[in-house]
Each structure stands twice: as structure tokens, then as C-alpha cells.
What does this fold into?
Amino acid sequence: MPTKVNVRIIAATNRDLDEETRQGRFRRDLYDRLNAISMRAPTLRDRPADIPLLAVYFLQKYSGGKAKLSPEAMEMFCQYDWPGNVRELDNAVRRCAAVRTSDLIRVNDLPHALRNFTLLRGKTEYCSEEITPLAEVERRHMLHAVDHTRGDVTAAAIMLGVGRTTLYRKLKSYGSKRLESGEAAPRPDKVKNAGGDRWGLQRLGNDGIDSFVRRVSAENTQNSA
It folds into this structure.
């Protein structure tokens, strides 16, 4: 005579049983019997705030409360994506506790998977950054200086700390509209008495302006020779 029993079955899986059933890799009748109440447990990477708590808990468990993780090691624990979830974290901490050389667990004590993952991700993030070429930075800066001085290439050269001839050559290679428009630079002897601060030279003071005038005059004399 059959014996009646009253049982509850708790089953867990890391697969999508709906998809497995549609693909014919899991029996539909068994799935319907098991799927009375379903619960989804989030992965460890979906709850990163739990990683430090679990790491400390497991480390106290396996080291007898003696060891602790360095800030750098804990940072690597938090950056890792933990495809094996809590079981992988448990094993990683167990290994750290076993191979540590002191009560402070450092980066070198971590499993290779954690160190390599963080290193590779750091390289990927670095390579993905947009770096402006130095020549482009120079071009933008020089054009900005000329715009700031309203086309006065001589004053812009002084502000940039380069020779006027060098700046003219650079602007010509950039195809600057300032050169195409033929805007003339002011006479050097008028710079000191120019109204306002058209070329941003007030901050140089009187001595700086006198030096500026002497340098411009010398360049004009040299170019005229």
C-alpha cells in the first residue's frame, strides 16, 4: 500500500529555465511542477555593497579574526565582477587567509583572477580615453591667444612666450583667417598708451609693458633690415 508523504522541494539553478524549456533542453512538465513559487536571487555583481561585508565575514571565519584586508586589496575585491558569486568570493578569501605572510592581506596575496581582471580593465579604460594630440592642443592655444588679442599676432606671441616669426609661421600652416583678413598689428610705440586692456597686458605692469615695447621694436628693426 503506497505511503503518503507531504514534502516541499526547493530547487536552484543559474540557468534561464524558461529559455531552456523553449529550446527543449529541460522538461516542460518538470518545470511546471517546480515553478509554483519562483524567486530570483541577484548576482553578487548586482549588489556590490555586500562584497566588503562578505569579505570581512569570511576572512574573520578563516583567520580566526586575526587578518584584515588592506584598502588596495579591498578595492580589488569590489572591482571584480565575481562570475562565481558568493561561492567564488568564499574561496578567494579562504585562499588569502591560507597563503598570507602577515595579518594584513595585500594585493600580492590575492588570487591571480582578481589581479589580472583589475589590471586588464585598467588598461582598457586607459586606452578608451580620448587623448587630444599635443599638436592640436598647441593649435587651439595659439588661435585662442590671437583671438584674445583681436588679431595682434605680436602681442599674442609675447603672451605665449614664442617668437613672432614662429607664431606667424604656425598660423599660416593653420590657415588662420586672421592672416587672410590682413589685420595689422598695432604700432609698438602705441601699445603702452593703448586705451583699455585690449591685449591683456595690464597684468604685466609698467616694467613688463616697457619690456614688451622694447622687444617688439627690436623685432621690427630686425625684420626691416
Notes: The beta strands are 68-69, 104-105. The chain has a mean pLDDT of 77.
